[in-house]
Amino acid sequence: MRQFRSWATRGLLALSPLAFAMTASAAGPIDSVSPTLRAAMQRDLGLTTAELSQYLVVERLADLHQGKLAAAQGPDFAGSWIEKQANGSYKLVVATTSTFPQKGPSGVEFRVVRNPIADLNASKDELDALADRGGKVPKGVYSWYVDQQSNALVVGVGRGRLSAGIDFVAASGANAAHVRFVVEDEQARPLAALEGGHGYLRNPGDGYLYSCSIGFNALKGSTPVYVTAGHCGDQGESVYLEGSAGTGPQWTLGPLIGAFSGSSFPGPGQSGPDYAYVTISGSHTQVAGVHGWTTSDVVVRGNTAGGVGTAVCRSGRTSGWKCGTIDQVNVSVNYSTGETIKNVNRTTACSEGGDSGGSFITGPGQAQGVLSGGSGSCKGKLPNNRTRSYFQPVNPILSAYGLTLKTG
Hints:
The protein has helices spanning 35-45, 49-73, 117-132, 162-172, 394-401; strands at 77-84, 90-96, 108-112, 141-147, 152-157, 179-183, 189-190, 199-202, 210-213, 216-220, 223-228, 238-242, 253-264, 271-272, 275-280, 289-290, 298-299, 311-316, 320-334, 340-347, 359-361, 367-375, 388-393, 404-405. It is an alpha+beta fold. The strands form four sheets. The chain has an eight-stranded antiparallel beta sheet with strand order 9-8-12-13-15-11-10-24, with helices on one face. A six-stranded antiparallel barrel has the order 18-19-20-23-22-21. It has a three-stranded mixed beta sheet with strand order 1-2-3. Helix 3 (117-132) packs across helix 4 (162-172).
């Protein structure tokens, strides 16, 4: 049922302290970040202004060099990520199986590991293939992903369910030497409660309203559309703004804004993506931005995908602006309702029911994806080690439906 709210599973991550190898520039990257994102990132990531500035320098370094560094390693490449040090600074880490001396830009550390990323991905593909063939994911298996930092294929299981994880790996044919099991406290479930982050409602006539959030505006040829989560509605279903402008009052049916033209979400016991797009009807206009709720809006500048360690913020109708970092990419997550969602990214940002479909964006305004599900909540002290949210990357959505992101 799509009225269920969902959160991402809790993951375990251990970061090794490293020597700081790069200094932040006095100005530049932080000036390109909107005040909305700057304040939210500092609040939710616990960063000082100086730490945020230095992080953005490293983020820019990663944007410029990550792809080239990976290509240079060839089959020895084992992943890369932005890593926070014990002293609060950041650096870009490139993992390799090569023991030869490595050279790269200032601020990059090369780390020798055992397994190439291609081998770990091949083992993950075996688990995905088992789910694709209709092999039921055992109860107690919550997620699986290649953890670049630990150089392992991690399988997340519930407490007391290690045997279920072992059986799942054995049935798949994946290389058991690649696998590490972690205990996760909570299983994810799918989130569902003309600017990114605005709330919208479905009214299917069953006596209930169903809430989600707009992801990003786009174009289908010259037709205005927006992308969102697939579990938020089925093809052909009409959608309404929440309130007159998508900002409430909550559960107030506003104007008709369009209908789902494409939607993909697997059924229980099946696997697949969680994405959709809505064709906007009438005279509604699009804004190339993400709603800032209590602060200024953020302009969407592009759609360059961030890697592990990238700071992201999300906007949604229930909890507004919340920030975190991408801590895993290309995750397969088994929701508590039985669906397996593949190729999503996991973040430490919090989320609540109804935030589903909402926007994930970086400080420089690069669209990342739309919220699918998660674990934990936005209540209590943040950041904490229980909260995780998954987003469906935006680029596969654009590619699947032939859409062009609206940028400003």
